[in-house]
Specification:
Number of helices: 14
Helix content: 25-40%
Catalytic activity: phosphoenolpyruvate + UDP-N-acetyl-alpha-D-glucosamine = UDP-N-acetyl-3-O-(1-carboxyvinyl)-alpha-D-glucosamine + phosphate
Subcellular location: Cytoplasm
Distance between the termini: 12 Å
Pathway: Cell wall biogenesis; peptidoglycan biosynthesis
Strand content: 15-25%
Pfam family, one: EPSP_synthase
Keywords: Cell cycle, Cell division, Cell shape, Cell wall biogenesis/degradation, Cytoplasm, Peptidoglycan synthesis, Transferase
Largest sheet: 4 strands, mixed
Strand order of the largest sheet: 21-22-1-23
Length: 425
């Protein structure tokens, strides 16, 4: 495991470029195995999840190269094989191989995935969708076995009981080559789903309605890549750096941004009193003065993203009064609270609410990044704090943030990654 060492208390300034969306990338890579040609992705983030997905691809004889932000995947010699359980268990999004393998081979065997420990994230809606498409699903010995009869998958009308990004994506992957038409109702509307549908449609898929709550998929026989797919900017990375810039910045410009994807987040920043300058594809954050407390409630898109409730917390600590965070998606996403306590933050959980009080002076401490977004919150707090902060399990931060150390260095931060034995890497 790695740790992040931060010598905090410095004001940061400059500009940085947001990378491709992690939550798109981890769906697009499994989707690539549906193609009958090699595929290319541009603006791929340099994160550990991408390297773990490459390991899973290699186990199926799907070769890939990753150079200069471009990932090339060749699924033309794909074989069915047991997927490496260690790589599967390292990231939650590996469950997209269920839908992709089902769409490719009409069967799939996948170990129950791992990833962040932020409370239960059941896959019952995924399984409901697969069954509606004609698959038989058996859960046994920590694995899911999915198969179809000789006729393969067929179109179906599927109403999701709860809005689920993962289930929406998995059903799309399974249905894109199924016979007939599939309709997904109460579908998730996230930009990453539009990104996936755009990629598949450019290869010949027939997907309509992505970005709305009703998606229709007419199955096709073949998918063939004709151009490089450029991944959309990461809205969660954008929000994280917006919070950082407002908390400890002396003027920071974020480039490669889609402001429309950030409206629920930037609305809260404006409500706090941050004078954002929002341009067509960039956002400038000037040095801020006094900030007002706000009430944050996470919702499905286009509401405030659950992945951003922890990264905004260090900014809420600067507000003059108590802010309240309600996470309706993952109420157990509170691992950062006890860690921020160690740094002197006035923050506590009360009746499923996270109450964040004014905390003008944070002190560096030894803390632990239990998952990606908790780690991001600790990273921002560490940069704002006096003294040295050591974040253990920093691999979790590296899983989700593209070249985070390089980007922080560009802003003037004093931060490094080291092993547990103090060996710098």
């Amino acid at each position: 495991m790695k740790k992040m060492i931060i010598h905090g208390g410095k004001r940061l300034s400059g500009e940085l470029t947001i990378g491709g969306a992690k939550n798109s990338t981890v769906a697009l890579i499994p989707a690539a195995i549906l193609a009958d040609t090699p595929v290319r992705f541009d603006t791929v983030p340099h994160i550990l999840d991408v390297h773990n997905l490459k390991i899973i691809l290699e186990s199926m004889n799907v070769h890939s190269t990753f150079e200069n932000d471009v990932l090339t995947i060749d699924p033309t010699q794909i074989i069915e094989s047991e997927l490496p359980s260690r790589a599967i268990k390292s990231l939650r999004a590996s469950y997209y191989f269920m839908g992709a393998l089902l769409g490719r081979f009409n069967r799939a065997t996948v170990t129950f995935p791992g990833g962040d420990n932020i409370g239960p994230r059941p896959i019952d809606q995924h399984i409901k969708g697969f069954k509606a498409l004609g698959a038989n699903v058996v859960e046994k010995n920590d694995s899911v076995f999915i198969s179809t009869g000789t006729e393969g998958l067929h179109g179906a009308r599927i109403f999701l009981d709860v809005v689920s990004v993962g289930a929406t994506i998995n059903i799309i992957l399974a249905a894109v080559k199924a016979h007939g038409t599939t309709t997904i109702e109460n579908a998730a509307k996230e930009p990453e789903i539009i990104d996936l549908a755009t990629f598949l449609n450019n290869m010949g898929a027939k997907i309509r309605g992505a970005g709305t709550d009703v998606i229709r998929i007419e199955g096709v026989e073949s998918l063939r890549s004709r151009a490089t797919h450029t991944i959309i900017p990461d809205r969660i990375e954008t929000g994280t750096y917006l919070s950082l810039a407002a908390a400890i910045g002396d003027g920071i410009l974020l480039k490669n941004v889609i402001p429309e994807h950030m409206e629920s987040f930037t609305a809260k920043m404006l409500e706090m009193g941050v004078d954002l300058q929002i341009n067509e594809d960039s956002i400038y954050v000037p040095r801020v003065g006094e900030l007002s407390p706000v009430r944050v409630k996470t919702m499905t898109y286009p509401g405030f993203a659950t992945d951003l409730q922890q990264p905004i917390t260090p900014l809420l600590l600067h507000a003059n009064g108590n802010s309240v965070v309600i996470d309706t998606i993952y109420p157990q996403r509170t691992q950062h609270v006890a860690q921020l306590h160690k740094m002197g933050a006035d923050i506590h959980v009360q009746d499923n609410l996270i109450v964040v009080g004014h905390s003008a002076h944070l002190q560096g401490a030894h803390v632990e990044a239990g998952e990606i977004r908790s780690g991001a919150a600790l990273m921002i707090a560490g940069l704002a704090a006096s003294g040295t902060t050591e974040i253990s399990r920093a691999d979790n931060i590296l899983r989700g943030y593209d070249r985070v150390i390089d980007k922080l260095h560009t802003l003037g931060a004093d931060v490094e990654i080291a092993t547990d034995e103090q060996e710098k890497v």
